Amino acid sequence: MSPQSRDEIHWSPGVFSLNLTVTDGTARLSRLRIGDQDLVRPAAPLPLVELGIAGSGRSWSSRRYVDSVAGRRLAYRHHTMSTDTLTVTGVDDVSGLSVITTFSAVPGAGAVRIQSRIVNGGSDTVDLEWVTSAVWGGTLAASPLESLRLWWADNDWLAENRWISATARELLPDLNRSAHEHDPRGTFSRTALGAWSSDGSLPLGVVVDESTQAAVGWQIEHNGGWHWQAGERTDGLYVSLLGPAETEHDWYARLAPGEDFTTVPATIAFSTDGFDGVIAALTAGRRANRRPHRDQVRLPVIFNDYMNTLMGDPTTAKLLPLIDAAAEVGAETFCIDAGWYDDDSTGWWDSVGAWEPATKRFPGGLAMIIDHIRDRGMIPGLWLEPEVAGVRSTVAELLPDEAFFQRHGRRVVEHGRYHLDLRHPLARKHLDEVVDRLVGGLGVGYLKLDHNINIGVGTDHDAVAAGAGLLGHNRALLQWIDGVLDRYPDLTLENCASGGMRVDYAMLSHLQLQSTSDQQDFLRYPPIAAAAAAAIAPEQAASWSYPQPSFTDDEIVFTMCAGMLGRLQVSGHLDKMDEVQRALVAEAVTAYRSHRQFISTAVPFWPLGLPGWEDEWVAHGIQSGQQALVAVWRRGGATDTRTLQLPAALTTASVDVVYPAATPATYQLVPTDGASALRLTLPNAYQAIVLAVGETPPKE
């Protein structure tokens, strides 16, 4: 054990310091600070882990995931620490459960990843109904709730990344606690259900003290159901983060003696620089905890034939001119999206699953198309939806019921598809054979992995509850992905679920990039693209740029700017454009390629604040040191000039146009009371621009 007192554990891994106290025998988070700024300082600290087990419940009845009887019984046993890791063990002598909680610091950042392993060391079976991934009280406790602003992100199909805020007091009404002498029973919460981890909300939240800019944020790293809540206690705001739970997700874990359960991980971030500072810390955590891959450094430009282009109807005649046009503008990956596996352009939805190339679509064979992509200097890619099999597919007949999600003894059907259960060896074997055939056989170097159904609470086959079956599948999916990348380390995998319905860092710690949306209206894409970097590391956030021959030059620039500060994913009928139009697309690709190395190390900021869905002006930037790139869109309205607030580090007075080179825009740096600001005029009603501010970012 550390030579420190049993009653006080102090850990200082770098940017922040953390204190645990042993109170009433239980280890509790009592203080977290950056420098001399307390960011967590509860007067009555909560246990490191709150857990509900059948037969114990809570000491205060509510829908809050705190006040668990078992959590307060966790007697501190010992701890170990290193520069980057702190591990604390507690034991509940009543149930026999041991809880081993590990804090892993993100190097050089105000962020820590937390995960617990729960082991049944007793003689009886224990039913675990819920368990926190992380929980703490006293959030920004030096300030009253009235000055705390809580941020969360609503996330719907075609309308992703919509950040919303309210003061904590607006969300948590003042109940006059002194008159009742009890904590409230209510909370403000966000939840995801089923297999789409970001359907409805992103698994993120941030609390900011608007008077000091002290901030705490969090990220739940799970590719299935999760829940977070914030509520008022005697000592201020508590936050509780969970993976699946029995009430919300029909999940529980039955632990026989000797069995264990590991919680969903969560990353907590801290900053004295407000919302942007927390997102910078989370971005560092996202980069530190993901699987290394060359794609994260190279950031090749992708052309995908789907969006507003072939829309799931590829043929040899349609693809060959598109491939040539994509190569001409500088694309480095060409992905053939949906439809390559079926000759029926309208009826393949419920017959997919075998993933064999169609024959009538490609008279010379799909291999000929793949070879042509490679001959034009691009990596060939294919769309794949691995976790499903259509009800009319041969796979649905060949695989046993046990290889699919089931509830109440029947296969679950959603939108004409069955859902494979990757806990089953035959399901994994089938998908391995598909990948080996496409990657090892055809030479495909890029797979877009989509997932277009939400199967609900899960599967109760070979599981104590449907949510437990889903969690088992979620984890088996990640193991399967790792197996694919172990066999094919140069293969790039894109994460997609009807666009942005599965945006989480369980998936993105394994996969290389993320589709941000299926939105087809280029005028509605800017707020999605601009806010994506709050949830996704910029170099993993792939936004569509789909110029069309009918577009004006301003419209081509407008859509091309969507991916310029993240991953540039191009579509559109480039083959039908004239030379001037295609040159404007090629200019964007060249500009992107010249600055993409900067993207993979920079952190995001929002010069006009986080975008609203209907905002007429939208802006976001990425910054490292005294360098920044800023993308700005004007979406109509009478105002042609806006002033953009810049990070304090941008002290060098220089602004350069990155794209488009020919623009009627005018701009100048202007002094403000704090950091520099940029006054920008976009004279046309629908117009966009990318600027380099401060020192010119290094070019490739």
How would you describe what is shown here?
The protein has 700 residues and is an alpha+beta fold. Helix 14 (553-560) runs parallel beside helix 15 (579-599). The longest helix has 22 residues, at 466-487. The radius of gyration is 26 Å and the shape is globular.
Helical percent range? 10-25%
Class based on secondary structure composition and strand pairing: alpha+beta
Counted beta strands: 41
Task: Figure out the total of helices.
Answer: 15
The termini sit apart by 50 Å
Radius of gyration: 26 Å
Gist?
By secondary structure, this protein is of the alpha+beta class. The strands form 8 sheets. Strands 6, 7, 8, 9, 11, 12, 14, 15, 16, 20 and 21 form an 11-stranded antiparallel β-sheet that branches.
Question: Which secondary structure elements does this structure contain, and how are they paired or packed?
Answer:
Blueprint: E1 8-11, E2 17-23, E3 26-34, E4 37-40, E5 51-53, H1 69-73, E6 75-81, E7 85-91, E8 97-105, E9 111-120, E10 126-139, E11 148-156, E12 159-167, H2 168-171, H3 177-180, E13 188-192, E14 200-201, E15 204-209, E16 215-220, E17 226-233, E18 236-242, H4 246-249, E19 253-255, E20 260-262, E21 266-271, H5 274-288, H6 295-298, E22 302-304, H7 306-310, H8 316-329, E23 333-336, H9 366-375, E24 379-384, E25 388-390, H10 394-398, E26 406-407, E27 410-411, E28 417-419, H11 425-441, E29 446-449, H12 466-487, E30 492-495, E31 513-515, H13 525-532, E32 541-545, H14 553-560, E33 567-570, H15 579-599, E34 603-605, E35 617-624, E36 627-635, E37 641-645, E38 655-659, E39 666-670, E40 677-681, E41 686-694
Parallel strand pairs: 22-23, 22-33, 23-24, 24-29, 29-30, 30-31, 31-32, 32-33
Antiparallel strand pairs: 1-2, 2-3, 3-4, 5-10, 6-7, 7-8, 8-9, 9-20, 9-21, 10-18, 10-19, 11-12, 11-14, 11-15, 13-17, 15-16, 16-21, 17-18, 25-28, 26-27, 34-35, 35-36, 36-41, 37-40, 38-41, 39-40
Helix pairs in contact: 8-9, 14-15
